[in-house]
What does this fold into?
Amino acid sequence: MNKGLLLVFTGDGKGKTTAALGMALRAWGQGMKVLVLQFIKGRWESGELKAAERLGPGFAIRQLGGGFTRDPAGQVLEEHREIAQKALLFARDKLKAGDYDMVILDEILYALKFGLISLEEVLVLVSEKPENLHLVLTGRNAPPEIIRQADLVTEMRSVKHHFASDIPAQMGIEF
It folds into this structure.
């Protein structure tokens, strides 16, 4: 590998995690070790978790989040802030350990948007990325500071979504 890249999948459209997981699968198929850390998802078993178990060594997904991040009044729960801080420290340790060729910080930009972690903390994490590691960040509203540092930014744009037609989340599509 010549250079580890910083890749960002953002935007209001569906497919950010899916694109990152597709890239992870491609890397794993080339013999690279991949770690996916999910900053919001937690407390439920998604299809990608089941798939990762079947792939075996070299491909791991860890749900580090607390699930939905707001109470009915729309307030960010302090518990989620603490969970996100622990996830950030865990991610930092994994980046420094050098055990993986690609690390995906899934939904880290949501954690940033909801105020669970700070932009400064994410920028420090990005700056500490080992030279040969591919680091992938996903979530809506990527800040300009992160976009400027990225080697690749893809913005998913919503054109039409089945949720607007009151069709609920579908197995194999959303989870």
About this structure: Residues 28 and 56 are 10 Å apart (CA to CA). The mean pLDDT is 90.
